[in-house]
Amino acid sequence: MEPTTTNTPYLINEEVKTTISSDYRYGISHKTDTNCSIDYIEKFGNYENVIDILDNNSIGSVSIDINLFSEIRSASIEFFIKTTNTSQGFWLNSSLSKDFDGFSLSIVSDSVFYFNGSSYEKIVNIENDKWYQIRIDFECTNNNYSGLDENQWKITINGTEYGNYDFWNDVSFINYIELFTSQLDSEWNIYITGLNFSWDSDFKFEHYLFKYLKIIDYLKTKNIPYLILSKEPTSFNLETEKKCDVYRCIR
């Protein structure tokens, strides 16, 4: 299998980019300070499509902002997470327009915490290098979603339910989710996979952070042979993506 002689890599091919661009239903941005990174791991033990967040800067951090482009009032969010150092700080916050926080979840001091509006309350202890399946149910209205009252949420960790908890602030809907590491800690990794929204079963987090993955899935769907040049065997970071060429191939 050889690349065509057109020298047009599919990674930057406008036809492919135009075809898939309509599928991006969220605005996802990220920031990595010096010595921090966001990597993609195709397979990590029994888990696939893993996002690897590295914070190796004691005065810096990694942050990912997700603009949902929708007013979500009652829903669930699920994902798997593992950290190499549970004493270091990691947060998942929800908000209305990034101004008023709804539910706030953190991993720090070897435990999972939530913020009740005035202080952090411990939910449960957790361990280093162990995968945890997380489900968050939240309700901004009086529809009693998952048994919740208005402006309440709860969390399920590896099958055990905790809550109900009150929101940090009363909000009429959630339209932002933020993930970020502490600016005071360094030398640890956070691994996330299987991020899923109850209102969108087709959401693939990795497609928004690494655009080439969306292109490859598109080529597979269309049964178009392709060849990837300069791709690392298991991990693929944002800087490397700029140097990756995905060619349409001929047999």
Kindly describe this structure.
The chain folds into 2 domains: 1-25 and 211-251, no CATH class; 27-202, Jelly Rolls. Strands 13-12-11-6-15-4-3-17 form an 8-stranded antiparallel sheet. The protein has a 7-stranded antiparallel sheet with strand order 2-5-14-7-8-9-10, with no helix packed on it. It has a 3-stranded antiparallel sheet with strand order 1-18-16. Helix content is 11%, strand content 50%. Residues 1-13 and 231-243 have low confidence and may be disordered. A hairpin with a 2-residue loop joins strand 8 (100-108) and strand 9 (111-115). It has helices at 14-21, 205-209, 211-221, 238-241, and strands at 2-3, 27-32, 36-44, 47-55, 62-72, 74-83, 90-96, 100-108, 111-115, 120-125, 132-139, 152-157, 160-166, 174-181, 188-197, 226-229, 235-237, 245-250. By secondary structure, it is mainly beta.
What is this structure's SSE topology?
Blueprint: E1 2-3, H1 14-21, E2 27-32, E3 36-44, E4 47-55, E5 62-72, E6 74-83, E7 90-96, E8 100-108, E9 111-115, E10 120-125, E11 132-139, E12 152-157, E13 160-166, E14 174-181, E15 188-197, H2 205-209, H3 211-221, E16 226-229, E17 235-237, H4 238-241, E18 245-250
Antiparallel strand pairs: 1-18, 2-5, 3-4, 3-17, 4-15, 5-14, 6-11, 6-15, 7-8, 7-14, 8-9, 9-10, 11-12, 12-13, 16-18
Précis, in short:
With 251 residues, the chain is mainly beta. Helix content is 11%, strand content 50%. β9 and β10 (120-125) form a beta hairpin.
Brief descriptors of the model:
18 strands; single chain; disordered N terminus; seven-stranded antiparallel sheet; 2 domains; mainly beta; 4 helices; Jelly Rolls; 11% helix; 251 residues; globular; 50% strand
